Amino acid sequence: MTMKWERRKKSLMTAPEGAPGPLPVDFIRLVEETLSQGLQEGLEAIRQIHPESGFRAGGAIYENEILLAITLTHGPSQISATTVFGSADYDPNSEKPALIELLSACLDAAGSVFQHYLDPAFPERITQIADQSLGALEEAPFQWSPIKPESHSKIEVHVKIDKSNPVLDALTEDWLRKHDPDYQEDSGKNMEEKRKEAEDFLGERLDAIQGRKNGHGGNTPTGLH
């Protein structure tokens, strides 16, 4: 399934969303493993609040932009999440910088934002990122902000943070595909209404699951490792 990501740059193509291509699967796995290992202490700290916290990555390659999205999720029973986006200019007709360099720079830039909030030396930051409210985050790049990672000083990456949950979005899309055969043909306002119905449905189900785990039956969630 192709996610509809919020882009930094406008599409140069007439096709919807600039006909994006998915990021390499191996790179997605590398992102998740790299952050899980590099920020292990911070993850262990936030799991004291949300036991199933972990990283999920996604993104796309557009005709003029590389977009990496890294989400700190708190398990399938939690709607709240924190997503950091890394975006870099991309020219498929230029050999430099190479695609892998752009991807690596996006990882370093987005990872540095998580490193800031998951630093065990600053427990107040961990509390901030664990909060459901975006306003709880201090010194956060709420709008696209340029960064030049130390390891890729010649590449400018723009980062942005929000409380979106692509995992929930994927569940919404999946629910629509399974329950509405006309979903692919819908467009505009009608499609948005159907998305809202699906999100409400999933929200109610997730609230019910969370309620059972908070003392109304079910088991306490365990950590990822």
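(ticket continues) Second input and output from the same batch:
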Amino acid sequence: MSILVYSSTDDERLKILQALMEFCEISESEEAVFTEEQMLKIDKYFNIFDKLKTYQNFIEEEKQKQNKEFKELFEKARIFVKHYYMSMLMAIERGELPASAANYYGLIYPFEIPEMIDGEELLAVSEKLFESDSMRVGSGGKYFANPSIGAVKVWVEKFKEVWEQKTNKFNVKKGEVENIDNIRKDADRFIAELHNYFDKKFAEYKFEKQIQLFEELGMKVEPGQNIFEDNGEPIDLFLTDEDKEKNAPDKKTNSGSNGINQLRFDLFF
């Protein structure tokens, strides 16, 4: 008897299903190892987790691209905002502006330049800067030329665009892949069933040989004995009692939220 060593990750599911697919192809010319229903399930689950892996890779690549652009634009916009405050400070020091000009911005000369350590703080400081500068210029104040308020706004707007994408578009949640939690649990049960099936089939071999045979199926096993219920069926080690109750036939399940980046799968075979 053997116990399946299984971590319930998408990578492991795909590895096992891919090995099973290859095993199906090899065994087609020989005596059928799997039933037609099992072969359909293997094909179905493999396609689902293969697409899911491709989707996850795409999301990760987009996040990396976005993070790079985010950091670059954050630093650029931050420098322009800081330099605008520095221009005002130096203009006051040179006597080109009265010290009272700082009061429009809620500051008292001499003042410290805002550091803005994150995107949220940068946007908050920038919004206050634009409002205050508009009030100062509207009261007869002079425009700054290096940098101009227009140039500062351009870079802040560019940063704001990627900041909104980062905080909204790729905030991927479990519900964005419809019904995926239930699909994962069903795939785990199916993999456990196949392990139990082959565990009986390989029982006549020495355990070292069993390990080798299971490796061909993408599975890792260790010595042990499955725990059985009164009806003779193995206890499902992948589900808690709470999960079992949630997935009972008379319970309604939430299929997940719809969204732009949502994948949709079904479990019909």
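Agent notes: DSSP finds seven helices and four strands in the chain. Residues 228-232, 246-262, 265-269 have pLDDT under 50 and may be disordered. Closing as not reproducible unless the customer responds.
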